[in-house]
Design brief:
The structure is a single chain. This protein has 286 residues and is an alpha/beta fold. The protein is 27% helix and 28% strand. Helix 4 links the parallel strand 9 and strand 10. Helix 1 runs parallel beside helix 3.
């Protein structure tokens, strides 16, 4: 059994990484002062910009990125596990990676994860997104065994749109993940319809905690994000939430004994059976 206090940090990141770092530092510090030993920030903590050229002009490799270094320093300063939900990192051929970082209390990198599924969609009202024009998709899931004061928890990684692909979370749960994560910058339109139900479903079907920090409100580039950063338990109950879309912090206690208890009651991970997807043949008429 491992018990720790987790926090989700809700932000409204803009186009200036320096200002976003200041906001991150203030909110992470608040979470740490309130007792969190694991703190998660949203997708694109470092910068939200629809202008691809502006984004590309500010891309840096991970080892030189100021947002990454600020997050690393925060983890060390507060002696916490800090999950930088994601930030844009320079990749090959002028493209970016939408990359999450997990830092230990010593500031060292425990794990990184690049968002796999690109948000290429056309929504109502003319809202359209093509992440594949800017970002290179990741090719592997992420898992990390993270040490806390009284034990270790296995954490699985995802980012935003990934939550619509349940096979990713199922693979992580089958690999032993007790805590699933999905930091996001969910649009208001899709968030109002799907945010809570998707996150609760991923928690329920994998008998795992789900932690999802989010962006919220109207951003400098004109987009609107849904907010409602939350933590759900393995029974699908929302046990912490930043209500609405304003920046803020919410905390909950994570106890991996509850994961074991729910998996014992409803052992769906063990009860899976192979099957074939096929179409029934209609007998030919004589």
């Amino acid at each position: 059994m491992t018990v720790f206090r987790a926090a989700v940090v809700q932000m409204r990141s803009g186009q200036d990484p320096a200002r976003n770092i200041e906001a991150m530092e203030a909110l992470v510090t608040e979470a740490a002062e309130r007792g969190a030993t694991y703190v998660q920030t949203p997708e694109m903590t470092g910068m939200l910009a629809r202008d691809r050229e502006l984004l590309r002009a500010r891309l840096m490799p991970a080892e030189a990125d100021p947002v990454v270094e600020a997050a690393r320093a925060l983890a060390r300063r507060h002696a916490i596990v800090l999950h930088l939900g994601s930030t844009a990192i320079a990749a090959d051929d002028g493209m970016a990676a939408n990359r999450a970082f997990l830092f230990g209390p010593d500031g060292e990198t425990i794990e990184t994860y690049d968002k796999i599924h690109m948000f290429d969609v056309d929504l109502d009202g003319g809202e359209s997104w093509r992440e594949s024009a800017t970002y290179l998709p990741g090719t592997r899931s992420g898992l990390a065994d993270v040490a806390f004061a009284d034990g270790t928890a296995r954490i699985g990684f995802a980012v935003c749109y990934d939550m619509r692909f349940p096979e990713l979370f199922r693979a992580e749960a089958l690999a032993g993940a007790e805590v699933l994560t999905a930091p996001a910058a969910f649009t208001r339109q899709t968030g109002e319809a799907h945010w809570h139900v998707l996150l609760r479903a991923r928690a329920i079907e994998n008998n795992a905690f789900m932690i999802a920090a989010a962006q919220g409100g109207r951003h400098e580039d004109g987009r609107e994000t849904f907010g409602h950063s939350l933590i759900a338990d393995p029974w699908g109950r929302v046990i912490a939430e930043v209500k609405g879309d304003e920046p803020g912090v919410a905390l909950a206690t994570i106890d991996t004994e509850l994961v074991a208890s729910v998996r014992a009651k409803i052992p769906n991970l063990k009860n899976r059976r192979p099957f074939e997807a096929s179409t029934a043949r209609v007998p030919e008429q004589a």
